[in-house]
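We read letters as residues; the integers encode the fold. Take this protein.
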Amino acid sequence: MSLRLRQICLVAADLAATEKLFADVLDLPVCFRDTAVGKFGLENILCPVGFSFLEVVAPKADAADTAAGRYLARRGGDGGYMVILQTSDQKHPIYRQRVADRGIRIVNDMDYGDFHGMQFHPRDVGAAILEIDRNDLDPDDPTRPDQPWHPAGGTGWRDLEPSSLITAFRAAELQSNDPQALAERWADILDRPLATDAHANPCIHLDDATLRFVPIRDGRGEGLGGLDLACADADEVMRRAQAARCVVGDDVVMACGMRLKLV
């Protein structure tokens, strides 16, 4: 393992409504609710997507002012918030030194014993909060894809019935007025080569997914705007999405302010 897309975090104004929408349309179960985010004035859910996780955070009703709430106001509603990558024990300190050399600020430095994480200032990275984490691997099988993941409660999610429709993240789409410059910045931070996809978009290939950089077309400014989801039955997802009154088209479902492309 070198660099995996282990978690995507979205922000929503109404957590219960978003949880129901993802269950109804994508058949995503909730595997964990992290009460620790309450110190930030938030509540959350985590849903397994294959061996990775989709998190949604929302400001608590009694929270006067939160970073997530300000982000909702700034981007005009629900949408993408964080891109969370997992690396190895050996590479994590190398990334720490790499961001320090570039003057990138760590806004949340986490140490939970078996888990170490770094969240970087979005103004230093661009488009989203980028987080690079390491988690102690399963000592009996360090190569298994469903490794423990502290933010999702460890390993209990392995026993949960997975979605019958959505099986993995394939890509995260970051939008910018200058996607090439944004892609170059992320490639430099991640020490990954910059590639180009079939549509001439700059992209970065991770071990299990792709980061794609595109122009802004929705008027919402720079940010995490879309996800490519491996889908076992796109027709069924589209049927469910239409029943839930989601905007759909060309294998794309709009949900939680995100373009969810079924691949």
Observations:
- The two ends are 24 Å apart (CA to CA).
- Residues 148 and 155 are 5 Å apart (CA to CA).
- The first strand starts at residue 3 and ends at 11.
- The chain is about 20% helix and 35% strand.
